[in-house]
Amino acid sequence: MAEIPTDLDWVRAAPEGEDGPGPWIEIAFGPGDMVYLRETSDPENVVTTTQKKWDAFVLGVQAGEFDHFAELDNNDPTPAV
Prior knowledge:
15% helix
């Protein structure tokens, strides 16, 4: 596994107005077009991808391609997977 840079500028993706401990997803953009993702509750577990793949994912979210993951069952308050 590639070494994770220690000087990354992590940005927390929390809902507006939320400043508690989360858990939240954090993202950082690093050298060589690498994108790093982690969860605040487990910051040592970092997932990496490329800028190109991240951009494709963001476009897919904006286009609604992943909305089915967020749909709620009428009897279950957790997102359907």
